[in-house]
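User: Hi! Is it possible to get a structure for several chains at once, not just one? Here's what I have:
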Amino acid sequence: MDQFWSVSLQLLEGFKENCILFGVTLLFALPLGLLIAFGSMSGFKPLKFLCRAIVWIIRGTPLMLQLFVVCYIPPLLTDGSFKFKERMTAAMIAFIINYAAYFSEIYRGGIEGIPKGQYEAGYVLGMKKSQIFFKVVLLQVVKRIVAPMSNEIITLVKDTSLARVIMVPEILKYAEDFTKINGLIWPIFYTGAFFLIFCGVLTLLFRFIEKKLDYYKG
Amino acid sequence: MAFLEVKNIQKSFGRTEVLKDISFSLEKGEVLAIIGSSGSGKTTLLRCINFLETPQMGNIIVNGEVLFDGDDPSKKKDSEIRKNRLHFGMVFQQFNLFPQYTVFENLVLAPKLLAKEKIKENGEYRGATTYKEAVESINAEAERLLDKVGLSEKRDEYPCNLSGGQQQRVAIARALALDPDVLCFDEPTSALDPELTGEVLSVIKGLKSSESTMIVVTHEISFARDVADRVIFMADGVIEEEGTPSQVIEHPQSPRTQAFLSRFNQYSD
Amino acid sequence: MKKAAALILAVALTALFLVGCGGNSSSNGDSKSSDTKSESSNATSDSAQSDDWSYIQNKGEMIIGITYFEPMNYKDENGELTGFETEFAKAVCAELGVEPKFQEINWDTKEVELKSKTIDCIWNGMTITDERKEAMSISDPYMENKQVMVTKESNVEKYSTAEGVKEANVVAEAGSAGETVAKEDAFFKDAVYLAADSQAKALMEVKAGTSDIAIIDYVMSIGTLRAGSDYSDLKVVEAQSFSPEQYGVAFRKDSDTTQKVNEAMKKLAENGKLKEIADKYSLTDLVIVK
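Assistant: Yes, the chains can be modeled jointly so their relative placement is included. Here is the combined structure:
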């Protein structure tokens, strides 16, 4: 029992890192994704192609590889003079860019799915473009993207454990260390409980939001 | 000079010329019906008048004020286009109500935004000098309009809970809430089940007064005949024939008008 | 709205680029001479890294790449890093007059870590192989890497002979010394080999019964098989041990640090300090620096 508590406490210590990575990624990737979405819908061709190329590259390569790239390419190129003091910083950058790319596509789908008539109705009522976006389109976009977003965000929770490939001390790494150092196997499987609980809470939260937005259809 | 003058409007999409030199005028309080087969340019003409499309050439003049001049090469500022649009109201074929707002909120959203802006800029919106005052009169006007289209009891419903006919009546009230000089209807009954067209047409009919000027693009020939003061028949981007309903619909001169109307009569019999 | 957002994005991206380039150029400015040198080293990879020691000396610290395993590098009950390699490395650093700094690494990317200078050496019971000698500069061997068989207690007797191992399922970490034994030693010529992605997974295979014998490092078996662990029902087959391979410390290719560390290790062997540390972890028999 003692062992169970000490393992739990240590895993919790690791899971704190997962939560930090999760929170910081969301905080920055959500707005950055919106910017990329606007960029990839822009009428200014070079910007549009740049944004679509970024999305293509990020979505077309494994997150694990991106973690390696962010962590090791800067020091390799600068012969070791530019490196991340904390590996968590490298993980955050890789995760933010990766998830911003995925979010941007969800935003784009949501925005492009709004019928043209909604914009035109706003125009003929003398509304400004910004008013149309914030007062008419935005909430409809939010409603449209809640489901795909919640999917992606729940994936993010689980993806955070990938940060261990660049030695961020997250929960799975702690668990693997228990196996390697203390010869304990069960902590590996036990980590599942932490993810399940976190994702369970998120699922409830998203269900609540969906319900909140369910007062109208269309 | 007529209340609304549309002169020499020309509009192409790429190489396709959709409107070729369209001119007409309308007096205050008149109802103009535009008929014609699909693809004849009726809807595009209406969209040009509402500044949803920019014609390559021509003029649009309301009450002596030139709102659009095709010869003026300078690009119009957004704020100017917005100001010009307020002379016109538009009712769409697909209603285009804002789904996340109640019926009442749909009516007051744009006027409230406008009032806030005007009071900030000029210290005044339709006689009101404070935003609160303006909102009160906007709300009262919205209630009056809902009553006019017979939907007072649907005030707090969301559009998804209304029938198509009811939604279109809300859309009409919403357009009226900004008190436009000219109210345009783009095939207002085309998206409706046949049994629902009547309620919408009778609302439009009820709006007819010496004060309201209306342009109705429609397939309802009998409605055009009953309600319109003047009728335009369009074909291939030109005005083929225009005049009073009795001239155009009862006694068409052009062979194309005759062909169109006879085809129509076959169906409606 | 769209345009404004597009503009913000463009500015943000430009800023990102500038930051990237800025970091680059400032680093070039910092140490012009060393930079050009290392560039040429990448090209020829022969003359190079002769200034690796002065690079480490200038920093004042040697970043030591480790992975956790008992008794080499592990955390004691207070969470302090300890172990044979930890103390050995600390002693060497003290000898050389630099601060040791331990950085846990991913074993799969150890060469990248070394090359990108996120670490300065790998000091973690690393087996010396020809491939590794080719890719990195490796110190004189300091310890023997004995490979042992681990199996369920009830099978210890059976697997003590080559006859008993016939048709048994043998598992080892891919690319490890254990794998070499399983594939090449005559003792296992009739056994069935399976690769696992770590020594721990190899043990898990045996524990789960999906394999019969795991071949792992002797030092690994000390920590993981002790009483109270999930593997306490597994035992080392004492009758056999294999492949006297050796451990070394790895540095960047052609680094001059290797020589410095070799000298320091010798000194520690001579003054008895190394034996003292080895005794503490009951590894004295395996130490080979004389």
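The longest strand of chain B covers residues 16-26. The mean pLDDT of chain B is 90.

User: Great, thank you!
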